[in-house]
Amino acid sequence: MLWTVKEEEALLGCILDVICDKYQADNGFKAGYFVLIEKELQKALPGTTLKAQPNIESKMKNWKEKYGIIANAIKLSGFAWNHACD
Question: Contact at 8 Å (CB) between 37 and 18?
């Protein structure tokens, strides 16, 4: 599924709201985390059909993979961002 920029921004906002509500556990997030985000996302985007499983969970997994790739690249010697390509 392709997410729109608006949907991704709303998802990030919902995640931040849930984190601010102390929904974190020692090793990640408490059970029911994705369902809570789904409910918040439905408030932010009325009429959305995005569901905790598979949409939100797979999107967050995708972001986590991309973050890992970028974090590893930044650790490499000689890595720098080229602002001329923005």
Answer: yes
